[in-house]
Amino acid sequence: MLLSVEDVHKTYDTADGPFAVLRGVDLTLAAGETLALTGESGSGKSTLLHLIGGLDTPDQGKIVLTGQDIAALDDAGRAALRRGMVGVVFQQFNLIPSLSVADNIAFQARLAGQHDPAWDAALADRMGLTVHLSKYPEQLSGGQQQRVAIARTLAPRPRLVLADEPTGNLDEGTAATVMDLMLELVAETGAGLLMVTHSAALAGRMSRRLHLRAGQVA
Ligand code: ADP
Ligand code: MG
Fold first, then answer.
1. Looking at ligand 1, which residue's alpha carbon is closest to its atom 16?
2. What is the pLDDT of residue 81?
3. Minimal CA–CA distance to 88: which of 178, 170, 174, 191?
4. Cα of 113 to ligand 2 centre, how many Å?
5. Distance, CA 43 to ligand 1 centroid (Å)?
6. Which domain CATH number covers 189?
7. Cβ < 6 A, ligand 1 pocket
């Protein structure tokens, strides 16, 4: 199994006292599978993605990535795992403004020591970015910026891709194009995809769907 989440709990301390967002979440994801995660705003979808991506730690429970319990790792170990194995796409494109499109695409792969110029070029080509490689993010449209962000995420060949409403900032037509490209490329790489979405249509294109409610998945 690529990913296994077992009885994960997360409580935030708030001004009104402790708030239990996740109350025993279980899910699994196999390589090549695509899983849609839906749920009302505030139901804990982003929190769960952050925990799986090793950006935060659960209070209780296990997150096992290719057999490795990420809670058992220290910060450096989690960072290494994240760089080498997990790719994340957010709603905000989070490109580095001072770097060209080409250098943005290569950025995470270089950090992970997995820079493959031929694969970068193939990704840029598939994303329709070849003519934009020497431009800077501010010179691109939102849809183009998100295609750069997705290419950057896929460049290190992650085995697990986490996407948090990746097309939430794009108009409907642009979102559909970007999503088609992302799903095609994820399928070709054989990665597993866990995607948070508000869109029933998008969720319908995933191989499985889970709904987060009252801190648990159904
Ligand atoms: P979703 O992505 O489903 O909209 P989130 O995971 O972002 O939900 O947030 C779930 C709940 O936890 C929300 O009520 C949010 O306000 C709260 N929350 C998220 N992050 C924090 C934090 N760092 N500290 C306190 N509360 C938080
Ligand atoms: Mg969210």
1. 42
2. 81
3. 191
4. 30
5. 8
6. 3.40.50.300
7. 12, 14, 21, 39, 41-47
- pLDDT at residue number 73: 87
Query: Residue 138 pairs with which residues in a beta bridge?
Result: none
Partners of 159 in the beta sheet? none
Which ligand is located closest to the Cα atom of residue 40? Answer: 1
Both tokens assigned to 150: 């997705």
CA distance 22 to 50: 12
Number of domains present in the structure of the chain: 1
| pLDDT 10s digits, 71-111 | 888 888 888 888 879 999 999 999 999 999 999 999 999 99
Helix (H), strand (E) at residue 6: strand 3-14
Residue 80 is predicted with a pLDDT of 82
Ligand number, closest to the Cα atom of 90: 2
Q: Could you please report the per-residue DSSP string of 55-110? A: SS--SEEEEEETTEEGGGS-HHHHHHHHHHHEEEE-SS----TTS-HHHHHHHHHH
- Mark the ranges of the chain whose per-residue pLDDT is less than 50: none
184 touches 215 (CB < 8 A): no
Structural domain of 14: 3-217
Instruction: Report the alpha-carbon angle 155-157-161, nearest 5.
Output: 100
Residue recorded with tokens 């967002």: 21
Q: What is the pLDDT of residue 116?
A: 97
Query: Quick one: pLDDT at residue 138?
Result: 98
How far apart CA 183 and CA 62 sit, in angstroms, is 28
Only one residue has tokens 């020591």, namely 113
